[in-house]
Amino acid sequence: MSLGSRTGWNSALCCLRLRSAFRIILACSIVYTTTLYGPQPLRQLVAYPAYSYLTTILIVSDATLGDSLRGFWHALCACVQVMTLSILSLLLIGPAHFSYFISALAVALCTFAVALPGATHLMAKRIAFGQIVIVYVGTAIHCAEAGELVLMHPIQVALSTMLGASASVMAMLFPNLFFYQKASVAAFLSPYLAYHEVRDMCQKYAENARKRLNFYSDAILSQDSSAALGFILQAQPLAQVGEKLLQSIKHKQEALMWERPKLRNILKPTCMDLGEKLQDIEIPLRGIAIAATSCPSFPVALIKKVQPDALHDMKRRIHDKLEQLERFAPVCILKKKKKSLDESFWPLETIFREDLLAFFFLDCLKLLQQNTEAVEECRESYSENESSHGSENQSHGGIKWSWSISCIIPSKTSLFFAVKCSVSLGLAVLLGLLFNEREAYWAGLTIAISFVRGRQATFTIANARAQSTAMGSIYGILCCFIFRKVENLSFLPLLPWLVFTSFLRHSRMYGQAGGISAAVGALLILGRRHYGPPLDFAIARITEAVIGLICFITIEILIYTARAATLAKHKLSLSLGTLQECIKDVVLFDNQNNQNNMQASIFPKLRQKQKKLKSHVNKLQKFIEEAELEPNFWFIPFNGSCYRKLLRSLSKMGDLSLFMSNKIEFLSVVLQRCEVDSEDLQKPLKCIKNDIELFKKKVETSLQCLQELSSKKSLAVHDKHDIELGTSPKANECRCLETEKDEMECILNSFLQHSNEVSDRVGTNTEGEDQKLKSQVIVCLAGLGFCISSLLREVREMEKEFQELVNLENPSTHVIV
């Protein structure tokens, strides 16, 4: 990435952080003004301003109007749940009977009841957990005032929560007067909408995709290796940014459902969501990247044989569509050239090995053009039908009322989550009450807002929360000391601190958990009054927070006994197994009667397995990140670099298997239009099928051996694993007379020979339709050949990476690869 691009990206990130900090300051200012300077009856009702601040920080951090509306709804759901449970329990047991143990038990039971339903959003659960802690700890502290606790106490907690949620919504409704560049007057005066943010990210992604296409295509068309390497190096960081933009767009999709923007939307309601549409652009871009990074030498020979006008015309069309998506401009209909890219393949009669990469690149370029046009057509259709369908769909899209049996019946994951939350909070409340009754709230509140479904980097998050709580509390104490004579101005030093924590929330060291804890730590001291000496309060709160974090760590370790490194190894084994299934299900049909029946059943199942593989790879990445963050203690150090190499190989092989299945599926469709029942064509097709089966056998055997290695309890195995075992070349299968040739070369050469035989028998007439059909078969077979050669090469690379991993963990063990 160039210096200018890097500077522009940093400026955009800085503006986003400042805009988020500005919204947090607005929301906290509303809570501060209401709780300290509002009417006396109102101040009595919102008796827990600390929880108002906490709710505000939870909802408004990096939020849009749609996010804040959704957060308001979750806060309302949490209030209804907690008020129902708490009022019933207080009426049945009586506030006077709530000892420390009974209060802790009530916290655990109510937490379990709230956490168990799988349909409730995690944000609603977190807010409800905090309310439960305040209700029952307050009951244990003030049990003498039994008459006022049954109704008034839960109502005060609920109203304090809704004050924070309402402040978040009001902060988002404030016009965008700051940090908007090149925006219209309407954008300046409108609220901070998720629509605007998704539109901006969509434009940035279109620009990012256009630059990546330029760099990769310039690398392919380059005349020397040094220039090509420079283009590839510039494209690599852009690929990472593009992936993050896609994730952010998908993350904001739900917030869009809570808004009703007056401006035209991006997609029509009948289309799939925007993240999925843009993923269709990302997939061929990844294929183009694979082609560019796999090229052994430059220039690429076949590119010179292709009509330059057709290639540049296709590239210009893709550029125009991406620029229209980037500007949200109206569609421009371009006149087609006399020669299309398909026609430029017509003179090519033979597939050579050195041309496979160029064929694959051009095929990905065609796929990219089709997908960009699909996104543009979908957006154009919505613009035409927006007035008649937009409001109707939006009115039904905000809140989903449909429930199913799977949402009501708790899953195993929900059960584990409920047990973890209930035991952690119950134990934290009990120990907090025993240590310091008055400040016992903070033992439970510290961890109530930090629960997540599944695993997380427990020690890292606990450490970040502890440090940030102490840091925010110390900052608040210092500011109280400085402004002790002008107490009314004590809120002013919070403004720069909230800006600082908005940046801290996105740091690698502290993350979201640390940023929120640091902001809350200062808010609880500078944003309230009449809580006693600040120093005593800060010390008591830090101690209670540590008690809560100890309970949190202990229960997490007891429930999730397996380390992240162990889970990464297990997930690696599952990924290798799923990859085997994907390769195994790649089938070329040589009989038309089989094609129509089998194609409808095989390819949908294969796509499901490829999605499963993608899910495994994503989880493997999370486990690797967690294992790198967590301490090793007395265990073998986690080799993050080796696992990341394996992760890259798995991801690349998953992409290649996807391209391979798409090529075979398209080839099956094309062959239906040929005389596939003719004996001349059936014979080479059967040979190609045998070549693919031989390729699958070799890849599956290697992957199975690697899976066995990864499934060992330790990679320090003493038995001799030969990854090549069982895959020795057979002359009659690969049709190779020279036994000293490598088996991969044998498979590929045989495939190319039979592919050329098929291309010779297809489109024998010189008519345009036959020539077009022949060019499609050539492109499919050449792309398939590239996928086969790349997968074989990637398997070999993975074997080397496994050997490196084994040697690092066990220098005395030798695994033959």
From TrEMBL:
Transmembrane segment boundaries: 21-39, 72-92, 98-116, 128-151, 157-180, 509-526, 538-560
Topology of this chain in the membrane: Multi-pass membrane protein
Subcellular location(s) of the protein: Cell membrane
Alphabetic keyword roster: Cell membrane, Membrane, Transmembrane, Transmembrane helix
Keyword Transmembrane appears in the UniProt entry: yes
Signal peptide coordinates: none
Main localization category: membrane
Any one Pfam family match given in the protein's UniProt record, by short name: FUSC_2
Integral membrane bound transporter domain boundaries: 427-553
One term under GO cellular component: plasma membrane
PANTHER family: F3L24.34 PROTEIN, P-HYDROXYBENZOIC ACID EFFLUX PUMP SUBUNIT-RELATED
Name of this chain's protein: Integral membrane bound transporter domain-containing protein
Protein species of origin: Prunus dulcis
